[in-house]
Amino acid sequence: MGESGENTDEWVTEYRKLIEKNNTGWCFWTYKKMDNTRCVVTFKKPANYESIIYFAESDHTNFDRIRMHRPDSKISQQALNDFLENCKARNCSPNEGFIKALGLTKP
Fold it and tell me: Which of 36, 71, 39, 66 is nearest to 53 (CA)?
């Protein structure tokens, strides 16, 4: 079983038990996510990261619209630098419920 998507800890527990009962191999997706408990470890969303998401999802049909939605470059650079720092393994937090649902022990 290659991938089951993002589900609750309870769903993961029952599904894992079912596929193991039927002698089916499995893996999980994903290992690490930002501000999310549906993974093994999580990390904090950096300040001002929403401005990057807003820009990425904004209207890019012409250069004027791109410029209108573009966040300040210093704010963007800091948010991206903070993202890289936050996602380092030493700055992540284990999601104990998800780990338990997979039948694993805390990393």
Answer: 71
Alpha-carbon Rg for the chain in angstroms: 18
CA-CA distance, 55 to 24, in Å (whole number)?
A: 43
Examine the pLDDT at 41 and tell me if it is beyond 90: yes
pLDDT digits (tens, 9 = 90+) for 43-94: 999 999 999 999 999 999 999 999 999 999 999 999 999 999 999 999 999 9
The structure tokens listed for 8 are: 């609750």
- Please, how many CA atoms are within 13 Å of residue 25, restricted to the half-sphere of its CB? 1
DSSP classification of residue 23: T
**Could you give the residue ranges of the DSSP H alpha helices within 33-95?**
49-57, 63-69, 73-86
Q: Is the peptide bond before 105 cis (omega within 30 degrees of 0)?
A: no
Compute the distance between CA of residue 45 and CA of residue 54 in angstroms, rounded to an integer: 14
